[in-house]
Structure formats: structure tokens, C-alpha cells
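C-alpha cells
===========
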Amino acid sequence: MLRLLAPLALSLVAASPAMAEGYYSAVPATAPAKASIVTRSTVWKCADGACTAAKAGSRDAIMCELLVREVGPVSRFAAAGTDFDAAALEKCNARAKG
């Protein structure tokens, strides 16, 4: 039984970093000029009009606010696959540079 479970456990460990890279996802209202953006210690990768980042130590709302300060308003922000509702998105976008 252990022989059967060992490869499965290894595949889960190997998949974890890749899954963590997309913990946050956002769609800026206008495509960012840079392919890579750093907010505090979080690196965001942007391509094809969307940005993603690994999980960080800050609350999800703070991560959204940090991103909009760099890229402007976002039309969508999600953490762990769950989209922000309209009220949370509006509050986040209020932090965008004018």
C-alpha cells in the first residue's frame, strides 16, 4: 500500500508550488505596461490582460488594494478561486491612483 501512496504524495508536493502561483488573479481595466509587478514582497505576473500572484501574508483585500495602486482599477479580483463581490471590488478600486 505504501508503494502505491508514495508516488501520489510526491505528485501532490510537486504540484503545490504551481498551484500557489495563481492564488490571486486579477483583470486590470487596462492592460499593465509591465509583465512583472512587485507589491511589497509579492511578485505579480501579468500576461494577456490578467495578473496572477502566489499567496502572500496580507489579507486578500489588502493584496487587491496594493495591486490597484500599481495597475489602476481592476474589473475582477479573485483569491483562492473566489471572486470579490461588487462591494469588495468597489472598495478595492477606490485605492487606485487617480
